[in-house]
């Protein structure tokens, strides 16, 4: 971590995070009726903190395992006086399984998940049928799942996995139109530098 990330991490982690636990998340009393949107693998949190700032009526929970990213987003939270964003430093699959109640999320964001471009590593990609079934269980009726990648064959794989999940409806036909409200991220820039096209998917829970 950079000195600024380290400092933010040690000063702010306790105030703006939930510890991982194998029990359902207890949000603060005044948050219980607000929409909760989870972002999986937020990296440096470029999109995370901006989305939270632009939607003060909703609560956001970022899940990440990369400490410098946690430090960075905590720094952003302090710098901008953000009160509707918290983080969990843990594997997202376990957080979803243990801490998030079924039918509770208003939305899920997955921006540029690790692409694992080599064919022999494709099985490590996070978007797989079991994972999408888990997401679907956690999202409430009419809630959404929004995923974005710059790797074409991962995008095709995502599309086929989402299309096969029967309780999810594609908001578009095939890939989504670019969602103008989504802020740019570090990995989107890396993709653009490689002249990659950006593929977006938006599904709504039935
Ligand atoms: C390619 S980066 C994208 C980061 C960011 N969303 C962006 O667009 O710049 C993928 C991120 O997902 C995180 N990640 C991968 N698997 C994860 C998991 N099981 N739980 C939580 N975070 C995970 C990685 O640590 C990494 O920061």
Model description:
The chain is of the alpha/beta class. It has one domain (3-9, 35-205): 3-Layer(aba) Sandwich (Rossmann fold), CATH 3.40.50.150. It has seven helices and seven strands; from the N terminus they run αβαβαβαβαβαβαβ. The chain has helices spanning 3-12, 46-54, 67-80, 92-99, 129-138, 152-163, 186-193; strands spanning 36-40, 59-64, 85-89, 105-111, 139-149, 168-170, 199-205. The chain has a seven-stranded mixed beta sheet with strand order 3-2-1-4-5-7-6, with helices on both faces. Strand 2, helix 3 (67-80) and strand 3 (85-89) form a beta-alpha-beta unit. Bound molecules: S-adenosylmethionine. S-adenosylmethionine (SAM) binds at residues 40-43, 63-66, 69, 91-93, 111-114, 126, 185-188.
The helix/strand order is HEHEHEHEHEHEHE
The strands making up the biggest β-sheet line up spatially as: 3-2-1-4-5-7-6
CATH top level? Alpha Beta
Number of folding domains? 1
Radius of gyration over alpha carbons?
16 Å
CATH superfamily: Vaccinia Virus protein VP39
């Amino acid at each position: 971590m950079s000195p600024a990330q380290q400092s933010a991490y040690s000063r702010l982690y306790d105030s703006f995070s939930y510890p991982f636990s194998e029990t359902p998340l207890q949000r603060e009393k005044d948050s219980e009726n607000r929409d909760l949107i989870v972002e999986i693998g937020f990296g440096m949190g470029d999109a995370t903190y901006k989305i939270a700032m632009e939607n003060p009526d909703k609560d956001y929970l970022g899940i990440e395992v990369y400490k410098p990213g946690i430090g960075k987003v905590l720094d952003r939270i302090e710098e901008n006086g953000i009160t509707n964003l918290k983080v969990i430093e843990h594997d997202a699959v376990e957080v979803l399984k243990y801490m998030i109640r079924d039918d509770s999320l208003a939305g899920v964001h997955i921006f540029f998940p690790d692409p694992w471009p080599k064919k022999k590593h494709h099985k490590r990609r996070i978007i797989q049928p079991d994972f999408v079934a888990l997401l679907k269980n956690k999202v409430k009726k009419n809630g959404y799942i929004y995923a974005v990648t710059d790797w074409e064959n991962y995008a095709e794989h995502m599309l086929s996995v989402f299309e096969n999940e029967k309780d999810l409806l594609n908001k578009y036909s095939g890939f989504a139109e670019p969602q103008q409200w989504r802020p740019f991220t570090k990995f989107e820039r890396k993709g653009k530098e490689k002249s990659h096209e950006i593929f977006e998917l938006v599904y709504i829970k039935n």
